[in-house]
Amino acid sequence: MKVVVQRVKRASVRIGGELHSSIGQGLLVLLGVEDSDELPDLEWLVKKCVNLRIFDDEDGVMNRSLLDTGGEAMIVSQFTLLASTKKGNRPSYIRAAGHERAVPMYEAFCRRFSEEIAKPVATGIFGADMQVELVNDGPVTICMDTKNKE
What we know:
The protein is an alpha/beta fold.
C-alpha cells in the first residue's frame, strides 16, 4: 500500500459536478492498493497515518497528531500511486490491485481509520472520476509505502 498524506485546511470530492464529501482541517489520504498487500500492511499504515505528528502545537512545532487535534479525515482511492515509470513514458499500473482485491482493502482501510479516530471518515467512490480539491496546510505532504517502511 502506498499513501500520500496531506495536512489540509479543507478538502472535498466532487463526482459528476456534485459534492460527494468534504472535510475541514485534518488529513487527506490518497491510497493505492497493491495485489500483494495484506491486513498487516493495512494496520501498520492506518496507525502511522493517525499518529503522524504533523500538526502544530501551541509553540508552532509539528508535535501533534490527528488523534491529538481531533481533526477530520478524507480517504480517496488512487491506483495511480502504484504507477511504474521505469520503461518508456506511459506509466504501467500492473502492480495496482484489481477491483476484486482493491475495493475490500480500501473499505477495510476506511473502517479501521474511522475506528482509530473514533469518527466517520469522508471518502470518494472507488473507481469514479473524482475531482479532489484541497487547501494544503503548510504545505505538509508525506508519502509512505508499506513495502519500504521508512
